[in-house]
Amino acid sequence: MNHGRWSQRVEKIQPFYVMEVINAVKRLEAQGRHIVRLEVGEPDFPTPPPVLAAAHRSLAQDQTRYTAAMGVMELRQAVADWYLRQYRVSVDPSRVVITPGTSGAFLLAFGILLDWGDRVAISDPGYPCYPNMIRLLGGQPVAVAVGPEEHYQLSPESLRPALEQGLKGALITSPSNPTGTLIPDAALEQVIAMVEQEGGRVISDEIYHGITYERRARSALEFSQEVIIINGFSKFFAMTGWRLGWMIVPPSALRHVESLQQNLFISAPTLSQYAALAAFECEDWLRQQIQVFDHNRLYLVAALRDLGFLIPVMPTGAFYVYADASRVLARTGHVDTLTFCHDLLERSGVAVTPGLDFGHHQAGTHLRFSFATTTENVREGISRLGEFLRAALPQDTS
Ligand SMILES: Cc1ncc(COP(=O)(O)O)c(C=O)c1O
Question: Does residue 131 sit in the same domain as residue 216?
Answer without folding.
Answer: yes
